[in-house]
Automatic annotation (TrEMBL):
Species of origin: Pseudomonas gessardii
All residue ranges annotated as the Aerobactin siderophore biosynthesis IucA/IucC-like C-terminal domain in the record: 411-571
PANTHER family recorded: L-2,3-DIAMINOPROPANOATE--CITRATE LIGASE
Name of the featured protein: Iron transporter
Ranges of residues in domain Aerobactin siderophore biosynthesis IucA/IucC N-terminal: 157-380
Superkingdom classification of source: Bacteria
Gene3D superfamilies: 1.10.510.40, AcsD, thumb domain, helical bundle, AscD, thumb domain, four stranded beta-sheet
Amino acid sequence: MTLTLNTPSLNTVSLHDHVLDGEAERHAIECLLNCYLREYALPRNEANLNYQAQDLPMSLRQANARCISIRLPSGRLIVRIDRCSLLGRCHYLSGPYFKGNHQSWRPLSAAELARLLCTPLSGAERVGELLQQIANSLQITRTFLRHSRPTEATDSLLASEQHQLWGHALHPTPKSREGISHDDLLACSPEVGARFQLHWFKVAPRLIRHQGEDPRSTLQQLSGRDDAYPCHPWEVARVLADPLVQRAQQQGLIEYLGPLGQAMYPTSSVRTLYHPQMAYFMKFSMHVRLTNCVRKNAWYELDSAVALTRLLRPVMDALATQQPGFRLMPEPSATSLDLSALGTLEQAREVTECFGIVYRENLPHADRQRYQPQVAMALFTWDRQGRSICRPQLQRYADNTGLSIEQATLDWLQAYAGLMLGGVLYCLFRQGVALEPHLQNTVIGFAENGLPSQVWIRDLEGTKLVPEIWPAERLNALDERTRSSVYYSAQKAWQRVGYCALVNNLGEAIFHLANGSGSLEQQLWAQVGDLLHVQSARLDHPTELRELCAGAPFPSKENFMTRLMMRADREAGYTWLPSPLAMLEKRKRA
């Protein structure tokens, strides 16, 4: 009797999991195809975004179906889409079909597609590593879909941090997390609404080093002790296995206390933790590769975060008057342990990096209540039913103002892009400061009627200085390694800012705001063009902006090729995308 009663329930769960696995597979395929299109096929004229031939798989032969075709060395790919943006970003309605030379059409899984796309581009070792990471990302996405639940958070910032199931839409491995067990993944990942205690060590006070503001009151508030120092649960095994830490334990300088104190919430970056009542976000080290990078706090990054906050205080003050509504989130403190007396400099730096914490100022409670902030990446993405999350927000603004949804969308982007571009371009061309305003680094606050009214840019790790405006003598308090880590050439600074602001951020925003309407997408990009002309005039027409307004291509970071070629993120290459602004100008003249 028991077996009979339970069988339908088991079958239902199995069917539900099968559907979720299919969604994870579909998103993995979409990421791979969009990366390959943008970085490889479109620049080489190997893609047809409106394929009209009769030779199609049977399942794609519906009337009015729009398909794209991609030429490969070994054959041809066909996929059905329902929209393609001016930047070549597609939304797919079918899985990919491949037809090899002298073969018939066959459907491809995500793993088969990855192997087909990657193998001609690099050697076996590099391809093998990327294929493993793609498989890892897919499996983790499946896990998150099975264990995610509707948010119960009333804190808008926390809710947006913790429910970004899909991640970076144009990255081949958006959810890869190497070397993490299933249980640890569920215990500490924001996608499943995790909250957890830190692991703590009783540490001799002379071993603790802090730069900038003194964060010890926050550590005491978290741990309930005045002699404890934390690390992330995913880092504790590495810490306990370290020979210098073991030596310090033997000498009674360090004692492992285990997990204790108040629980913290992981944010969308995974290693940065949040608690609404704490003064700081806490950015921990973890020797885990997330997407492209191993997310440790290098010793010089601990130095540079605090140094940049100090150096940029006058810039932050200037922004308050020059670009009201646009703010940076300071990182005024960093801490770690110094065990250099117990071993070599290299050994001590390993410990410093394992224990390194960067402290980012939390948004004031009054600001969180007033502006109901959300991470931009949480808005410009899909929900689990395939709907753009920003659409209800736009509808609320339209309802509040009595505007049509189209006009509300135009007003919404005008407000958001005006704030974001105004601040980012002012920082680069007036102050020589290159921010990284990609979707995960951008927090949007709203007026009471739902219109964007505040933009915060966070994470100074990606913030760089242009040496022509910040010569070495302005940075003489930094050692040479730290100083070199905060510099970008003027060209590289523009590439990173242009990519983050125009392609990663506004490109994805417009894709979701337009909701498949080609005419609305054109109007939204025309608005961006007008804003760029205004900013160019305000900033005395710097060369890069003048060329951009004249139709120069957009710089687009190569996430797919960077991961395939095992390059550091700082050394990423760029693809130049045809400008939507130039396309619109061409259509006006036609």
